[in-house]
Amino acid sequence: MLKKIWPLILLLSIALIIAFVTGLITSITITNGGGKKQQEIPEPTKNVPVEPSTADEKILVLGDSIGYGIGDDPNMGIGKRYATLIDSEKNIDVTNLSVSGAISPELATLVESPENAPFIATANLIIISIGGNDLNRLQSEDPLSLDTAFQETFSTYKKNLEAILNRIRTLNPEVQIALIGLYNPYPEQDPQKSAKLFEWNYKTQLIADADLKTAYIPNYDQFKGHLKTYLAADGFHPSSIGYQVIADTLDRVLNGLD
Length: 258
What we know:
Elements: H1 2-31, E1 57-63, H2 65-68, H3 78-83, E2 92-96, H4 104-112, H5 117-122, E3 125-129, H6 132-136, H7 143-171, E4 176-180, H8 191-209, E5 214-217, H9 220-223, H10 227-230, H11 240-254
Parallel strand pairs: 1-2, 1-3, 3-4, 4-5
Helix pairs in contact: 4-7, 7-8
């Protein structure tokens, strides 16, 4: 009797094993999305045009996070705010190639890039905000090393800034350049460091003054005493009000009112 039943038990066992393996394979296939790869999330793309526009007036913004517009309302910044202050009948295009966190050697590399040359060559106004991140690296310096560190840092910055301006002049000899001066976001800092900021601005203005079509846009006095309203929530970048103050000052300087 057992001899007759045994083959049936063996066949049933084999069938159960096959069913189990098939189910396991199906389960794995479903878990892995049927053999398809998981969808990759694309990186956000920069809103930078491929080539210059054909607008009547072309404004190019270069530099760091302040040039980029960090802290301002979306899709605004110095360039866009200044554009609203000039002739409304003109077709004005604002291109922003600023990079948040940029320091002067990085901007020097950017303006040397062939892909950016057409934007520089066709601009009517180039607004530059650079140097704040270079100088901000001195915040950790102690009083004994500050003087030496400042001289070294400014020397490198000066070399880069002059290279940037020379490159722009090579590509666009007649363009108006506006160099945005630094404000002090640290009102309680060591007076020695505040003095270095003042010296930085003064020496930067001398570089700007060496070129007839480069204007220095002061912000130190404009922001002093108004940081609660002129700075964004991070306490470092301008707020929308602060950016409007910079744009208003830019407008006055370029029109010879300051």
